[in-house]
Amino acid sequence: FEKKPQALDPTEPDRLAEAVKRMTLNHVVITSVNRDDLADGGGSQFVRCIEQVRQLSPQTTIEVLIPDLCGNWQALALILAAKPEVLNHNTETAPRLYRRVRPQGDYERTLELLRQTRSLAPQVYTKSGVMVGVGESDAEVKQVMQDLRSVDCDILTIGQYLQPSAKHLPVQEFVPPEQFEAWAQFGRSIGFLQVVASPLTRSSYHAEQVRSLMAQYPR
């Protein structure tokens, strides 16, 4: 059976901010599990975390890696009003594979979240991630990349899917490093400001590099 999620921890934002301060982080990625049980998808907790980190570590740049908030764009607007530097929401895979790979997700809603972000907060850098090796084709990966550029997504990560347990989807293919480099080159050619692609790339891999990106492409 599925365990019912616990209530939000009101001390979490303070504890997070204190950890960021003690580690003297230049860049922090704040993320969460899906909280579809909450009306705002956990958006208010993201806001409090951003605010507390800002208070204790004003020089730290903040990236939020958020779920789709069940399409609650008011919750998204509140997160963006807290002014994170980067809004990250993963696309994960090609639309054909969503039912198998991401059954609770919606490809068009993912794109709309990124589109809404660009509209509501043009100064925020948008980011998304794709995992490969689950049965997608090269053409499908490129189509996802083009779809992300159509909503003006700035940064893309591409990494190899690895099966966490026997209960999870099996790996269909171990993609060779040269294919990741080909996708990176394609991504840069269609306008991504940054593409990080390799077998071990994950959503937060080299995330701090956005600081130099912000200097190069200021908003």
Helix count equals: 8
How many strands?
6
Mean pLDDT: 95
Detail the poorly predicted runs.
none
Strand portion: 5-15%
Largest sheet: 6 strands, parallel
**Computed structural class:** alpha/beta
Could you tell me how far the N terminus lies from the C terminus, measured between alpha carbons in angstroms?
Answer: 47 Å
Helix content: 25-40%
Order of helices and strands: HEHEHEHHEHEHEH
Shape: globular
Radius of gyration: 17 Å
Biggest sheet: strand arrangement: 1-2-3-4-5-6
Characterise this structure.
The mean pLDDT is 95. The termini are far apart. α2 runs parallel beside α3. This protein is α/β, with parallel strands linked by helices and 219 residues long. It is built from eight helices and six strands, in the order αβαβαβααβαβαβα. A six-stranded parallel beta sheet has the order 1-2-3-4-5-6, with helices on both faces. The longest helix has 14 residues, at 43-56.
In short:
The protein is α/β, with parallel strands linked by helices.
List the main descriptive attributes of the protein structure presented here.
219 residues; alpha/beta; six-stranded parallel sheet; 8 helices; 6 strands; 39% helix
